Amino acid sequence: MIYEIRTYDIKPGSLAEVEKRFAEAYEHRKKHSLLAAFFHTEIGPLNQIIHIWPYKDLEERTRIRAAAVADKTWPPKTGEFLTAQRSDIFIPAPFSPELKPGKVGPYFEMRTYTYAPGALPNVLDNWGNALPERVKLSPLCFCGYSELGGLNKWLHIWAYPTLDARNNTRDKAKDAGIWPPSVVAAKNGGKSIPYVMQENKIVMPAKFSPVQ
User: Fold this and answer.
1) pLDDT of 30
2) Average pLDDT, whole number, for the chain?
3) What's the CA gap between 126 and 120, in Å, rounded?
4) Most CB atoms closer than 10 Å: which of 167, 186, 192, 202?
5) Which residues are CB-contacts of 75 (< 8 A; sequence separation ≥ 6)?
6) Do residues 83 and 15 make contact, with C-beta atoms less than 8 angstroms apart?
7) Does the structure show a pLDDT above 90 at 123?
């Protein structure tokens, strides 16, 4: 499986209208394939929407997108509000949960780390070892690495009921010495992960998002 994560920057004040038009168009689009999630930013880079689409592979993505466009009901008529668009293809880590519909938020933290070229095996090893204890404290929605778009990206998405819960959970994990993965690796004699950049944003779901 692959996930296409499309990030659009929109004009200030346009979010309500963008989500309205997207929801209307999605009623036709979903007969071809379903969204995994639709978010807008709350903290971090403002005026962004993020829609996440799962596909079996790139061939299926190409076929489905062509069929949706042929219907002449897609894409949504939101072009007048868009200032930038970005698309990235992510492959789930072997231990990533599937991004399934459900109520697990409504606050989601999207963290994107850029790792040094060639470091992916190290990332997978450290995360695979640390996650079993960390997910006991709060649910992981997705984690995976980029294949197309921005390269050497590691994305992880966490769900929280409140921002206070997010802060308390992260403090608890750190105090217990079970997070971040580099701490666990150091305790077990493993290698630290050579990240070169880290980004973070808090997002919330649109009303029509399968993940809430």
Assistant:
1) 95
2) 96
3) 10
4) 202
5) 25, 68, 69
6) no
7) yes
- Residue 189, both tokens: 């004699």
Distance of CA 77 to the CA centre of its chain: 24
- Residue with structure tokens 């920057």? 9
d(CA 77, CA 167): 38
How many Å apart are CA 141 and CA 188, to the nearest integer? 26
CA 194 to the chain's CA centroid:
21
Give the tokens for residue 120.
């992916």
Residue 30: both structure tokens together? 């979903």
Nearest Cα neighbor of 144 from 84, 86, 93 is 93
**Which residue segment(s) compose the domain that 14 sits in?**
2-205
pLDDT at 55 > cutoff 90: yes
Q: Is 147 helix (H, G, I), strand (E, B) or coil?
A: strand
CATH code of the domain covering residue 28: 3.30.70.100
Task: Look up residue 36 and give its two tokens.
Answer: 């995994």
Q: What is the pTM of this model?
A: 0.96
Check residue 192 and report its DSSP letter.
P
Phi (first) and psi of residue 27, to 5 degrees: -60, -30
Is 9 inside any structural domain? yes
Domain count, the chain: 1
Distance CA 78, CA 163 (A): 30
> What is the arithmetic mean of pLDDT over 37-45?
98
Residues 78-106, mean pLDDT to the nearest whole number: 97
